[in-house]
Amino acid sequence: MQNNQEIINATVAYVKATLEGAEGGHDWWHIHRVWRQSRHIAAQESVDMLIVELGALLHDIADSKFHNGDENIGPAKATAFMESQGLSPEVIDHVVNIIRYISFKGGFTDKTFYSPELGVVQDADRLDAIGAIGIARAFSYGGFKNRAIYDPTITPKPSASKEEYKNNTAPTINHFYEKLLLLKDRMNTNTGKQLAEERHRFMEIFLEQFYRENSDLYDTADVPDGRR
User: Fold this and answer.
1) Burial (CB count within 10 angstroms: exposed 0-12, middle 13-18, buried 19+), residue 80
2) Is the pLDDT reported for residue 6 higher than 70?
3) Can you list the pairs that 66-74 forms with residues at least 24 positions away whose Cβ atoms lie under 8 Å?
4) C-alpha dist (Å) from residue 124 to 30, 49, 142, 170, 196
5) Predicted model pTM
6) Could you report the per-residue pLDDT of 141-176, keeping only the tens digit for each?
7) DSSP label at 105?
């Protein structure tokens, strides 16, 4: 029977190999940041650290965005890997639920599952979606999907349904209003809430500068209210 550190080491190797060549915002280094941040947040919480680490390492093992919207591939791949490591059904089920319920809108949204471990990993994942890293990841994915950076005639839809959100092809700047700027107020832990404040403010500063640089290029009448 492997000890916990051996299981984590095997998981790291598996994730690195599986995500080799992945889009830059969802590659091994995204996982690495979420993993480290999860451990940092978990140190302030009463949680099962093995489940936190496995959830962080496996949460994007097969993101549905890169698999034609299929939300079952990630849980299936994670389950097969954890079974190969001899983990208990209870641990596997908990980690799979973290994978299923961690997403902002892409995953399960009925909120029938929650655990302190999910709260920790979800906060770490959301922190990686905001601030300087979040900005870089947003534009990396936008470029990967060949989306426009900005179009002042297309209004963001922050209240979009799950299906609208998943099928959205709007400019990357709209993503700030549809997700990134909403995350600060959706953190689960006190540590997550504190860390989110600075990153949120950085995004506001970025947007202020972005619109300032665009102000001479667009007729302000074409720019939706609140984004000038």
Assistant:
1) exposed
2) yes
3) 66/22, 66/23, 66/26, 69/166, 71/100, 71/106, 71/107, 71/108, 74/99
4) 10, 14, 22, 26, 10
5) 0.89
6) 999 999 999 999 999 988 766 676 666 789 999 999
7) S
For the chain, where are the alpha helices, taking DSSP H only?
4-18, 28-42, 49-58, 73-84, 89-101, 116-127, 131-144, 162-166, 172-178, 190-214
Q: How far is CA 113 from CA 96, 108, 208, in A?
A: 11, 9, 38
Q: Which residue has the tokens 């619109």?
A: 211
Q: Which amino acid is at 185?
A: D
* pLDDT single digits (tens) 28-56: 999 999 999 999 999 999 999 999 999 99
For residues 191 and 110, which has the higher predicted lDDT (pLDDT)? 191
Closest-CA residue to 13 (of 49, 63, 48, 61)? 61
